[in-house]
Amino acid sequence: MEALLIYFGKVFLASGVLFLYYQLFLKDKTFHHYNRFYLLGVLMLSMILPFFKISYFTIEVNTDIYLLYSKLQNFNSTKTLSHDFTYSQLIACLIGLVSVFCLGKLFYGIFKIQQLKKEFPQEHFEGISFYQTNLSEAPFSFFKNLFWKDSILIHSDLGRQILKHEMVHIEQKHSRDKIFTEMVTAVFWWNPVFHLIKKEIILIHEYLADKKAIKNSDTKAFAQMLLASHFSGTQLPATSPFLNSNLKKRLTMLKKSKTKYSYARRILALPLLFALAFIYMINAKNKEITKTNLEIEQMVAEIKKDTITPKDAAQGTDGTEIQKENPELFTDNDSLNETALKKIQDKIAQKQKLMEPYKELMLKKNEEGLKISKEMRAKSEELQKLSMKKDFESPRFKDLEKEMKVLDGKISEIFDTEEFKNNQKVIELKFIELDQLYAKMDDYYNSDAFKLKIKDAEERAKEAEKKFNSPEFKKKMMDAELKMKEAEKKWNSPEFKRKIKEAEKRAKEAEKMINSPEFKKKIADAEAKAKIAAEQANSRIIVLNNQNKNGNILTDDNIKIFIDGKPVSKTEMDQFPPEKIDKMEVFKKGFHGNTNAEIRITTKK
Questions:
Q1: Which listed site, 51, 192, 363, 596, has its alpha carbon 20 to 30 Å from 81?
Q2: Would you say 4 and 183 are in contact if contact means Cβ atoms under 8 Å apart?
Q3: CB burial string 293-303: b at 16+ within 10 A, e below
Q4: 159 lies in the same domain as 290
Q5: Among 539, 572, 543, CA closest to 555
Q6: Kindly report the CA angle at 562 between 560 and 565, in degrees rounded to 5?
Q7: Cβ neighbours around 216 below 10 Å, total
Q8: Which residues form the Peptidase M56 domain (predicted)?
Q9: Domain for residue 107, yes or no?
């Protein structure tokens, strides 16, 4: 939506500038054909120019610029998407609805003209269709159709002049201009410049028709005839009526003398000046890009010059050591993939970490040397002053010479030692290795494979943006927002709040009941019974709490015990392993005709 609004703004700006040029230099001049096609060109250019960029006509920037970028930053592609659905979509819908209404009005007018052609009798002469009508809008023409009014005698002076006038509209195809301008103003109805241009084109049509209609005739008589004519000012879309609201301007133009040819030549030269200015802008931009490309080439050449190639690095002892420590530097560019790149990046971090102690030592020595250098500079200035006085034999001069020798010795102790030289060599070697690693990274980032990845990522980002901006996705987002609003509305409803309060009330009552003495007593009783049942389940003693007819409790002697159908004693049952018991059945006295209680045990198979 933002892109559409920017396009509308550019259309308005382009049409405004071009129409301002017309108002200042072309308006009310007698070269009407030129003005007609200029204004039609303004409409087309205003719609097309916003799509053009000056970069389309310039040379390309050197692609080696990506090599420079890779030195400064990592390639991170982030895409921010904005949710601009509600207001922007509403504006777009309103613009579209008004455009559809205006186009519908135009098509309705054309349809009405087609209906009029069927309603009135048709005659043919000089390649046009002539319709005799009683319409208040007549006379008017539409392409090769001329609608005449019954009250106007075609053979009268007025009728002949009107016929000549309308024939000019037909011959010069003014209806095409009107259809085009009506469609443009319908789509770009919000642009007032287009409406002004449409009004000017209609007026120029009348100038052209009037000019040809009075050719070899009396201009004054034609002007009187225009004033004496009293027809309706209403008109159908895209038609060319004989009379309209521009009578005063038409009469003024009839009296106006023809514009001088010299002035016309100057006006015609102005578009050429615009073209030359545009070509000059392109040329200036090309020169700027050429200069930039030259600078890029020089910078890339410096980078490559400072970077030792693997072949050169392999020569001699130092190069051999680099090859042993960093075999990935000597691989072909084509074989370098993301895994190797990760190894190189880790190697760079490792080497930078290893260089830290050497760099710190170098900085420390440099600071010490800097302090001594400052002291030497001060003493040198003092010596110079004494030299200017030619006071070479003074004690101070001799003392300064001794002090300078001492300071010079201290400098030598710092920078001429084997420790410092070895440290410097290590740093130089590490920098060579780092240059090799960075060169390999540059090869990767400058490779066709990486560029294809970047291009693929950009295309995916465009597809994602396109999908995000699609009507379907925006509809889903709108539906989700509506559902969220409904859920929020339901959450904040009195009914939902009442249910929450009831649930909280029930939870409090349940908590109160759980903490009550009665509930705790029930829990304690249940735990005690469960404990007794567990103890009985683990016991081998079976108690049969049964009584005979006399009310006496049955004893173990009254109980018969069977294991897999075989009778056993109580002692044998007690010694039988419980884990082998599959099922145990207890039968009370009198069950199935038994006179004694029975225990029947079935073992596991």
A1: 51
A2: no
A3: beebeeebeeb
A4: no
A5: 543
A6: 135
A7: 4
A8: 162-254
A9: yes
Among residues 81, 2, 79, 83, the alpha carbon closest in space to that of 480 is found at: 83
> Does residue 453 form part of some domain?
no
Pairing of strands 128-133, 145-149: parallel
232 compared with 378, residue with greater pLDDT: 378
Q: One-letter amino acid identity for 373?
A: S
| pLDDT on residue 195 | 95
262 vs 242: CA distance, rounded Å: 33
Q: What does the block give as tokens for 541?
A: 């003693």
**427 lies in the same domain as 563:** no
pLDDT tens profile 31-89: 888 889 989 999 999 999 888 776 666 666 555 555 555 554 443 444 444 444 567 77
Considering the domain architecture, whether residues 32 and 138 belong to the same structural domain is answered as yes
Q: Which residues span the domain enclosing 440?
A: 310-446
Chain position carrying tokens 């040198």: 380
Residue environment code for 218-249, b if the CB has 16+ CB neighbours within 10 A, otherwise e: eeeebbebbeeeebeeebbbbbbbbbbeeeee
The count of structural domains within the chain is 5
Strands 128-133 and 122-125: antiparallel
The residue with greater pLDDT, 146 or 364, is 146
Domain boundary among 508, 537, 566: 537
Between 328 and 87, the higher pLDDT residue = 87
Residue 456 near residue 448 (C-beta atoms within 8 A): no
Q: Is residue 92 domain-resident?
A: yes
**Size of the chain in residues:** 605
Mean pLDDT calculated for residue range 313-322: 44
Clarify whether residues 581 and 517 are in a common domain: no
Neighbours of 209 (CB within 10 A): 25
Q: Which long-range contacts (CB under 8 A, 24 or more apart) does 77-84 make?
A: 77/454, 77/457, 77/458, 77/461, 79/461, 79/464, 79/465, 81/464, 81/465, 81/468, 83/477, 84/1, 84/2
In a domain, 471, yes or no: no
Same domain, 89 and 237: yes
Give the whole-angstrom CA distance, residue 24 versus residue 270: 12
Helix or strand run (H / E) with residue 581: strand 581-587
- How far apart CA 161 and CA 61 sit, in angstroms, is 64
Burial of 273 (0-12, 13-18, 19+ CB in 10 A): exposed
Q: Which long-range contacts (CB under 8 A, 24 or more apart) does 361-370 make?
A: 361/423, 362/423, 362/424, 362/427, 365/414, 365/415, 365/420, 368/414, 369/411, 369/414, 369/415
573 CB-near residues (< 8 Å, 6+ apart): 540, 561, 563, 599, 601
Distances (CA, A) of 405 to 370, 377, 380, 399, 411: 16, 13, 11, 10, 10
Least confident of 33-42, 424-433, 487-496: 424-433
Query: Of the given ranges (51-55, 74-78, 176-180, 481-485), which has the lowest mean pLDDT?
Result: 74-78
**228 pLDDT tier (thresholds 50, 70, 90):** low
Kindly calculate the radius of gyration of the chain based on its CA atoms and give it in whole angstroms.
Answer: 53
In sequence order, what are the residues at sequence separation of 6 or more whose Cβ sits closer than 8 angstroms to the Cβ of residue 510?
none
Assess whether 135 and 240 both reside in one domain: yes
End of a domain among 446, 466, 481?
446
Q: How confident is the model at residue 545, as a pLDDT?
A: 43
User: Same structural domain for residues 129 and 145?
Assistant: yes
pLDDT(460) > 90: no
121 and 152 in one domain?
yes
pLDDT at 238: 60
